[in-house]
Design brief:
Chain A: It holds the Pfam family HLH. Chain A: It is found in: Nucleus. Chain A: InterPro entries: bHLH_dom, Circadian_TF, HLH_DNA-bd_sf, Nuc_translocat, PAC, PAS, PAS-like_dom_sf, PAS_fold. Chain A: This is Basic helix-loop-helix ARNT like 2. Chain A: Keywords: DNA-binding, Nucleus, Repeat, Transcription, Transcription regulation. The complex is a heterodimer of chains A (about 550) and B (about 350). In chain A, α2 (about 10-35) crosses α3 (about 45-65) and α10 packs parallel to α13. In chain A, a hairpin with a 5-residue loop joins β6 (about 205) and β7. Chain A has helices at about 1-5, 10-35, 45-65, 80-90, 110-115, 120-125, 135-145, 290-295, 300, 315-325, 375-390, 390-395, 415-435, 460-470, 510-530, and strands at about 95-100, 105-110, 155, 165, 180-190, 205, 215-225, 245-255, 270-280, 285, 330-335, 335-340, 345-355, 365-375. In chain A, strands 1, 2, 5, 6, 7 and 8 form a 6-stranded antiparallel beta sheet that branches. In chain A, strands 9, 10, 11, 12, 13 and 14 form a 6-stranded antiparallel beta sheet that branches. A two-stranded antiparallel sheet of chain A has the order 3-4. Chain A is an alpha+beta fold. The radius of gyration of chain A is 34 Å and the shape is flat. Among the domains of chain A are: about 1-65, Helix-loop-helix DNA-binding domain (MYOD Basic-Helix-Loop-Helix Domain, subunit B, Irregular), CATH 4.10.280.10; about 80-145 and about 180-190 and about 210-225 and about 245-255, 2-Layer Sandwich (Beta-Lactamase), CATH 3.30.450; about 270-375, Beta-Lactamase (2-Layer Sandwich). Chain B is α+β, with helices and mostly antiparallel strands and about 350 residues long. Chain B folds into 2 domains: about 25-60 and about 85-195, Beta-Lactamase (2-Layer Sandwich); about 205-295 and about 305-355, Beta-Lactamase. In chain B, about 40% of the residues lie in helices and about 25% in strands. Chain B has 13 helices and 10 strands. In chain B, a hairpin with a 5-residue loop joins β6 and β7 (about 220). In chain B, α1 (about 1-30) packs parallel to α3 (about 45-60). Chain B is elongated and about 120 Å long. In chain B, about 45% of the residues are buried. The interface between A and B is large, with 165 and 163 residues.
């Protein structure tokens, strides 16, 4: 008993008192559960409560039916039906037994009706493939396979976690009880009886163009073989050389999306888009919705600094926010600012920034930005005028004074260097704060009892960051190889800034070329703010 | 005279105790326990188990009679064992205060403590203090999925040791809430608890393994990755997993990472991994921290530092062609971005249509 553990020297009196208190608490709890003890003016004594409990249990058993009243040895306390029910309910799942050779559903538990809305009868004896999403059929086939169709099996060595290749064709030993399977697949969800649809199954079902919806299931189980002599009711395949029936016995659990949704406060609406950049402001992720707003495709922007797109009037404010977000755990809201689109015009945005700190290294790794378009008639005209001059695209003029930068007269500063500078400040502060020794100190304190810890890396240079974060992951330009970054043993490869910028669509087919021509013609029109006459345009066709 | 009074009161006390013991005996005989178990129960345990019994009765009352109730006892136990075997874990019913109302009897296999020892006690007595917060918040939600550390009295060899020398065992708990309407609106949590099985899982083409340093940078990934996501393994080495995933899944990955640092095991839930060339795939990762391996005489080799091993399942297969926009779509998007009023937009789009035709 845990109580005894603590008190060696406590007087016996105290131990007794504690024991009595515990007993009294239990008796009170018991009294609270028994209806007969309920509306009592004064507290009942121990014996009476116990007697009433006996009566209550007898009454429960009488009312319950034979199963629950079994007092004979039932190791689980609960009758098996109830335990099974409880298990399937907890797991939101059903049991499925499928033959390996023809994927015939040999057995399926009743709980399937709650999950897929098909009755047990509808499914038993059917082919499993009739109910699996067509894109997952190969996956399920592979799991059922018992032949040398998929000879390369991979197992994990439990001790080291290293994969062990088993190149020999699969032998029957792999199929005996214990050969575990685990996979995800989508199964049909019947919409026939709309009214029986459980609330919990709706969020996971995805719409398809035909009449069925699908639920994602996590199936875990194992392979099991029975010699066919035991099976009289089931078909025995006479043409198989082995007279055994092999099945996959699996529990299929409804895969819940709900518990892992992105936090509710990140709600991306159509006029919003998400970006991620390294701590120096260079884009590492741009979602596709961005194109509708900024004109650039994600590939065109990755690796470039966000400062290249900020209007010079906003640089000071945004640099300040940049500094702030790197040092704060909170979300930082920017004011409205202008972002340069592909064709020179500006769009008004307002963003929420938050930085992400790697839990192991405790260093900021990147910044996620949720960007919102601020629309308004006043803005557009100003933007047109400001954006029409192409000069802005090419050279950056003198920028206003930003704290931390030497602002000599006539200084030309590449906008991206602002971000790099801010990032370097942060990295320097890490160097200063980090402890010089690499001991066994855990970032997580004494709570981490089990494993000795390696002290995390601390200092990194900006160039390391460039290597790791630039140009990743969408690169469609065939001329440009994705940098391999850091190999396990070698030094980090130094990449120059130029190679970070992805030129974008450079491999055009003739259709694309035609479109490009059209675009350039239209661009001219729009930038001038006029709508051109059709006759004025010279079509190359 | 006084001796007589004392003797009478002592006798009365003895009689009370006897009566009390009898009632306790009656109570324990009404509980569905094995005789050997019943014989060793102390009084507080009898009450605890009675409480559980009453509560479970309420929980199961809403049990619809879909299941065949008239299965043979033997068959039923076989079937149940099969279920529990597939689950590779045990079932736990928790009250909103954290009392372990019910545990399936195979809990002894995982915790080294028996069902009767544990039932009725509070889960906070047996779990790691740093996980209490998380457990508490999970008691309030409807669908649960979390990882916690629980005391285990099992030794390496599988024997049961004293609770004093218990170690922490990591369990993945999943389940849902159940609201019992009668008699009082009590709700409880139904959970399956299982240690995460990373070993002896037969991997398919739709999963890949990877190893990471503790900051989640790739140190290894297997070849399957290429057919699933398009990258060559070398391309990923040294890169952080956070870079490889959709920005909105940062918090999901963060939680996964924290679980690994604190509890040594984690299930990520679904998140998006970016495919080379555009688009993404929904995946789920099951990960564990592998202790540092120093080569020994029995197991020579390269020394391996502490690292994370991940098995990643692709939930939905990759599309044959990633959903990159067609040139036409891109053009239309760009025009929309440029055009500031709807009239001009219509004109521009009409031009496009004319050209196409």
């Amino acid at each position: 008993q845990q109580v005894k553990m603590k008190c060696f020297r406590e007087p016996h009196r105290q131990i007794e008192k504690r024991r009595r208190d515990k007993m009294n608490n239990l008796i009170d709890e018991l009294a609270a559960m028994i209806p007969a003890c309920q509306p009592m003016a004064r507290k009942l004594d121990k014996l009476t409560v116990l007697r009433k409990a006996v009566q209550h249990l007898k009454a429960l058993k009488a009312g319950m039916g034979s199963a629950f009243s079994e007092t004979t040895c039932n190791p689980s306390i609960l009758p098996h039906d109830d335990l099974r029910h409880l298990l399937l309910r907890a797991a939101d799942g059903f049991l499925l037994v499928v033959s390996c050779d023809r994927a015939k559903i040999l057995f399926i538990s009743e709980s399937v009706s709650k999950i897929l809305n098909f009755s047990r009868l509808e499914l038993t004896g059917q082919s499993l493939f009739d109910f699996i999403h067509h894109k997952d059929i190969n996956k399920v086939k592979e799991q059922l396979s018992s032949s040398e169709m998929y000879p390369r099996q991979r197992l994990l060595d439990a001790a080291t976690g290293v994969q062990v290749q088993v190149d020999a064709p699969v032998r029957a030993t792999h199929l005996t009880t214990g050969a575990r399977r685990s996979f995800f697949c989508r199964m049909k969800h019947s919409r026939l009886t709309e009214k029986h649809e459980d609330k919990h199954s709706l969020p996971t079902a995805s719409k398809k163009k035909d009449t069925y919806r699908f639920c994602t299931l996590h199936c875990t189980g194992y392979m099991r073989s029975w010699p066919s002599s035991q099976l009289d009711s089931l078909e025995a395949d006479a043409d198989k050389e082995s007279s055994t029936l092999t099945c996959l016995v699996t529990m299929c659990r409804l895969y819940s999306h709900a518990s892992h949704q992105p936090s509710k406060d990140i709600n991306v609406k159509p006029t919003e888009f998400v970006t991620r950049c390294a701590i120096d402001g260079k884009f590492t992720f741009v979602d596709q919705q961005a194109t509708t707003v900024i004109g650039y495709l994600p590939q065109e922007v990755l690796g470039t600094s966000c400062y290249e797109y900020f209007h010079q009037d906003d640089l000071q404010h945004l640099a300040g926010k940049h500094r702030q977000v790197l040092r704060s755990k909170e979300k930082i809201e920017t004011q409205c600012y202008k972002f340069k689109t592909k064709y020179g015009s500006y769009v008004s945005l307002q963003s929420q920034w938050f930085s992400f700190t790697n839990p192991w290294t405790k260093e900021v790794e990147f910044i996620v930005s949720l960007n919102r378009v601020i629309s308004g008639p006043g803005h557009t005209k100003d933007e047109e005028e400001a954006g029409s001059s192409k000069a802005l695209q090419d050279d950056i003029k003198q920028i206003p004074v930003i704290p931390g930068f030497s602002s000599g007269t006539g200084t030309m500063i590449y906008a991206g260097s602002i971000g790099t500078q801010i990032a370097n400040e942060l990295i320097d502060s890490y160097r200063v704060n980090s402890s010089p020794s690499s001991g066994a100190s855990s970032p997580f304190g004494p709570a981490q009892e089990k494993c000795p810890l390696v002290s995390p890396q601390t200092s990194r240079s900006v160039s390391d960051l460039n290597n790791r974060t630039g140009n990743f992951p969408t690169v469609t330009n065939s001329n440009h190889e994705a940098p391999t970054g850091i190999s396990l043993l070698g030094e980090p490869a130094q990449l120059d800034l130029d190679s970070m910028v992805v030129p974008g669509l450079s491999s055009f087919s003739s259709d694309e070329a035609a479109m490009a021509v059209i675009m350039s013609l239209l661009e001219t029109d729009v930038n001038m703010g006029q709508s051109g006459e059709l006759e004025d345009l010279h079509w190359p066709f | 005279e006084r001796n007589l009074v004392q003797a009478i009161s002592r006798e009365a006390a003895r009689r009370r105790r006897r009566v009390e013991s009898d009632v306790f005996g009656d109570l324990s005989r009404l509980l569905p326990l094995q005789p050997s178990v019943r014989a060793h129960l102390d009084k507080p345990s009898v009450i605890r188990l009675t409480l559980s019994y009453i509560r479970m009765h309420t929980v199961l009352k809403g049990n619809s009679d879909e299941e065949e109730k008239n299965t043979e006892e033997f068959e039923a136990s076989q079937e149940t064992n099969m279920y529990l075997g597939i689950l590779e874990g045990f079932v736990m019913v928790l009250s909103t205060e954290g009392d372990m109302i019910f545990l399936s009897d195979n809990v002894s296999k995982y915790m080294g403590l028996t069902q009767t020892e544990l039932m009725g006690h509070n889960i906070f007595e047996y779990t790691h203090p740093c996980d209490h917060e998380e457990i508490r918040s999970n008691l309030r939600l409807t669908k649960r999925d979390f990882v916690m550390r629980i005391k285990s009295a099992l030794t390496h060899r599988g024997r049961t040791a004293n609770l004093k020398s218990a170690t922490w065992k990591v369990l993945h708990c999943q389940g849902r809430a159940k609201v019992c309407v009668d008699p009082s609106a009590v709700s409880c949590l139904l959970l399956t608890c299982r240690p995460l099985p990373l070993s002896h899982t037969l991997l398919s083409r739709y999963t890949f393994t990877s190893q990471h340093s503790m900051d989640m940078r790739f140190t290894y990934c297997d070849q399957r990755l290429t057919s699933l996501l398009g990258y060559r393994p070398e391309e990923l080495l040294g890169r952080s997993i956070y870079d490889l995933c959709h920005a909105l899944d940062t918090s999901c990955l963060n939680k996964n990472h924290l679980n690994l640092c604190l509890k040594n095991q984690s299930v990520s839930g679904q998140y998006r991994m970016l495919v080379k060339g555009g688009g993404y795939v929904w995946v789920e990762s099951h990960s564990a921290v592998i202790p540092s391996v120093r080569p020994s005489r029995s197991r020579p080799g390269i020394p391996q530092p502490l690292c994370i091993l991940s098995v990643t399942y692709v939930l939905r297969c990759v599309w044959a062609d990633p959903p990159v926009l067609t040139v036409l779509e891109m053009t239309i998007l760009r025009i929309s971005a440029l055009t500031l009023d709807s009239q001009t937009l219509i004109v521009n789009l009409t031009i496009i249509i004319v050209i196409i035709n």
